[in-house]
Recover the amino acids of this structure.
């Protein structure tokens, strides 16, 4: 069995597009995803799928054992700890790392209804001032933090429909009326109807870019006159010896074109 020359970390739609590019180029690769849901969404790729979270030491051991020649970090833009672990593992082994950067659309949206913030605490502070029914489209990972900072408010969470995520919602004290389990991507029309159905006073989202349907989430807020709070991406950039940044899929394609699949 051929050992993957490249290992990709990330359960995002971007990472799956990178996998498709590798399939076309005939490059051997593996893909790491955190959850079974991520593995399910990646079904159909030709590369090996590895499921489960790894710390830096585990990553280094795995990559060394597999003889990996390059790593691509295509994880979610907000997964700072994961990216830090990947950097540590690659630098320990001296393996080249490509940090994929999802193109940002944050500067394309300016409106009095849009509130750009850097922290969850600030997002909650503003949301609490603007309304009672607060719709989160930020995923489940930091749901507990939002619930903690929004005590006394009706928190509505749009999350993935998996047993693990639903259990997390319940552990945060959310009732069946507050859990909205759906899988995107969603169109602007769908989001508009969804916001109305939820009777949301405020929508909280992330700067997820085109791949995450950022504009499709923001535009309905503006048409409905709903305040939209955007949690901006972390400013931390991972730089150092052996680390290359790829700004978008075109940059990744150029890197792969020069990669020897031998």
């Amino acid at each position: 069995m051929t050992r993957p020359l490249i290992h990709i970390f990330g359960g995002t739609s971007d990472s799956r597009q990178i996998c498709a590019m590798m399939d076309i180029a005939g490059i051997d690769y593996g893909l790491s995803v955190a959850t079974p849901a991520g593995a399910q969404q990646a079904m159909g790729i030709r590369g090996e799928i590895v499921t489960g979270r790894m710390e830096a030491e585990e990553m280094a051991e795995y990559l060394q054992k597999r003889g990996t020649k390059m790593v691509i970090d295509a994880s979610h833009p907000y997964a700072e700890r994961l990216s830090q672990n990947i950097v540590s593992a690659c630098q320990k082994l001296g393996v080249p790392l490509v940090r994929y950067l999802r193109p940002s659309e944050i500067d394309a949206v300016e409106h009095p209804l849009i509130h750009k913030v850097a922290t969850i605490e600030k997002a909650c502070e503003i949301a609490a001032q603007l309304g009672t029914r607060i719709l989160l489209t930020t995923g489940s990972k930091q749901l507990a933090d939002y619930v903690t900072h929004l005590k006394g408010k009706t928190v509505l969470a749009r999350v993935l429909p998996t047993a693990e995520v639903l259990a997390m919602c319940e552990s945060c004290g959310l009732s069946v009326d507050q859990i909205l389990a759906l899988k995107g991507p969603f169109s602007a029309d769908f989001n508009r109807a969804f916001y109305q159905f939820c009777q949301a006073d405020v929508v909280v989202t992330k700067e997820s870019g085109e791949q995450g349907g950022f504009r499709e989430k923001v535009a309905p807020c503006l048409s409905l006159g709903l305040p939209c709070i955007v949690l901006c991406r972390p400013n931390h950039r991972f730089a150092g010896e052996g680390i290359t940044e790829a700004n978008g899929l075109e940059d990744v394609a150029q890197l792969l074109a020069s990669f020897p699949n031998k």
Observations:
- Residues 80-93 form the longest helix (14 residues).
- The CA atoms of residues 116 and 230 lie 5 Å apart.
- The longest strand covers residues 154-159.
